[in-house]
Amino acid sequence: GPASGPAAPAPTGAPSRPTGAPTLSLSFQWPVEGEIIETFGPKQGGRRNDGVNIAAPEGAPFRAAAGGEVAYAGNEIPGYGWLVLVRHEGGVITAYAHARALKVAEGDRVRAGQVLGEVGASGRVSRPQLHFEIRRGVTPIDPLRELPRRAGA
């Protein structure tokens, strides 16, 4: 596709985001609109979040953050509920968990923005949300470093 233009400068007084430039060459888009209810990284009680959890209405569509190939679509991984993994260039994988329904199958090619499924509360969560991860190999990367900054976020 056409090259995107230069990024708009961040407004002054914008909330801080994780320091450092994005680490990946891919550009990502938000998989779903919503409030971030859990951020990336270590949490109380010794657990850690390998992605971000975004609150969204039950049944809302969630979309591929970048183009790639569906590496997994199912619900066999405990805690994640219905889960989609998309493999991108450079060994990068995005994960989308807690879905209510999936619209893609393993092996499908997807483009950025294509609907992968519907937000739900499957797995170990109490309210509808999308758990979203970006990994390079097995290393989780903070999605907020890679996603475009949202207006009002």
In short:
The protein is mainly beta and 153 residues long. It contains one helix and twelve strands.
Describe this entry's structure for a reader.
- By secondary structure, the protein is an all-beta fold.
- It has one helix at 143-146, and strands spanning 36-38, 41-42, 48-49, 52-55, 61-63, 68-74, 82-87, 92-102, 109-110, 115-119, 129-136, 139-141.
- The strands form two sheets. Strands 1, 4, 5, 6, 7, 8, 9, 10, 11 and 12 form a ten-stranded antiparallel β-sheet that branches.
- A hairpin with a 5-residue loop joins strand 2 (41-42) and strand 3.
- The longest helix has 4 residues, at 143-146.
- It is globular, with a radius of gyration of 15 Å.
Topology record:
Layout (H helix, E strand, L loop, with lengths): L35 E3 L2 E2 L5 E2 L2 E4 L5 E3 L4 E7 L7 E6 L4 E11 L6 E2 L4 E5 L9 E8 L2 E3 L1 H4 L7
Antiparallel strand pairs: 1-4, 2-3, 4-11, 5-10, 6-7, 6-9, 7-8, 8-10, 8-11, 11-12
Radius of gyration: 15 Å
Structural class: mainly beta
Distance linking N and C termini = 28 Å
Main β-sheet description: 10 strands, antiparallel
The overall pLDDT, averaged over residues, is 89
What is the chain-wise order of helices and strands? EEEEEEEEEEEEH
**What is the molecular shape?**
globular
Helix content: under 10%
Counting DSSP E segments of at least 2 residues, the number of strands comes to 12
> Which residues form runs of ≥5 with pLDDT under 50?
none
Label this structure with key terms.
153 residues, 10-stranded antiparallel β-sheet, two-stranded antiparallel sheet, 1 helix, 12 strands, 3% helix, globular
